[in-house]
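ugh ok so i messed up the first submission bc i forgot one of the chains. this is the corrected input, ALL of the components this time, i swear. 226 residues overall. if the numbers dont match what u have on ur side tell me asap before i send this to the collaborators (the ones from the other lab, u know who)
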Amino acid sequence: KAGVTQTPRYLIKTRGQQVTLSCSPISGHRSVSWYQQTPGQGLQFLFEYFSETQRNKGNFPGRFSGRQFSNSRSEMNVSTLELGDSALYLCASSLSSGGETQYFGPGTRLLVL
Amino acid sequence: AQSVTQLDSQVPVFEEAPVELRCNYSSSVSVYLFWYVQYPNQGLQLLLKYLSGSTLVKGINGFEAEFNKSQTSFHLRKPSVHISDTAEYFCAVPLAAGNKLTFGGGTRVLVKP
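and heres the new structure output, hopefully the right one now
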């Protein structure tokens, strides 16, 4: 089975712009979670989607949003980018939502200038 | 609320020597526990997991971990490390509901020849 894929792998944006990141889960997985990784804050949970519904949300401002499609693919959007949004954004998929093992993609590295 | 503490931020170790990475968690409920490894410029790879049953869990690449409920610990060990084990290691616990993983701060392992 193919693993979790994320596109694009690298992205450079300027402050004030918006960005959309994409994640394709492992085939058959219905839960997709997003995490932000920075040197200062470490790995932080953004949100989880299961069957097109947001199940959990982390402590991030409303500029961070996401959605999941009927094929379980997910996108996250960050509007009005700030310098502090520079990070590695990781997507993880699992069969369902309930403490299941999560399998991570390679991440999208976002640099905000 | 659950939290995860990795007591060592960096662990230098010589090749073929043993290594132990410490992880303590706080929780008032039954837990699942995970160890992930992150190689440079990559996503997270699952090393091993504890869901239930035997407290000694064996994972990939010769790693193992022991769940100790009384000490609320889940330390990771490898009897003989290789240069290729140079990476950052994360201990993680999911919240009781959903797939929101809480991560420790990470332990950077540097294997020296």
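quick check: The CA atoms of residues 22 and 75 of chain B lie 5 Å apart. that seems consistent at least. The longest strand of chain B covers residues 87-94.
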